[in-house]
Design a protein that fits this description.
Elements lengths: L2 H6 L1 H19 L5 E8 L2 E7 L4 H6 L4 H27 L3 E9 L4 E8 L2
Helix pairs in contact: 2-4
Length: 117
């Protein structure tokens, strides 16, 4: 199924949103406040998401910068692994990779799903 066809269905978008939110809740304990899903290119899906910062990480910023960065990195990695697995299992999507970044100041995250060709 092409990305455009997949994302033209509200049902598929809702299912993908639910998958994202469930994984986010599993790891961070809270859901997202805004979520937008777009096709970026053939074989790529972008999730643009706004969510609150993890309070515990904010508490580590001033005195434990390296530890905060390590924990943040580990949580991002775990999110990507779980999200890829969930989308693969629940939606039968052939995913090659997941890229993710988060800006704490704006509370926006971007997750890019790269499909196998």
């Amino acid at each position: 199924m092409s990305i455009s066809l997949l994302l033209s269905s509200n049902e598929h978008k809702k299912k993908m949103s639910r998958c994202y939110n469930e994984v986010h809740k599993e790891i961070y304990g809270v859901g997202v406040t805004q979520l937008r899903i777009e096709a970026v290119a053939d074989g790529m899906i972008m999730f643009l998401v706004k969510h609150q910062r993890v309070v515990a990480l904010r508490a580590l910023e001033d005195h434990y910068t390296e530890l905060k960065q390590s924990v943040d990195s580990a949580l991002h990695h775990e999110f990507k692994l779980r999200f890829q697995k969930k989308l693969s299992e629940e939606m039968d999507l052939p995913i090659q990779g997941v890229l993710r970044d988060y800006d704490p100041a704006s509370e926006w995250a971007c997750t890019l799903i790269i499909m196998e060709s």
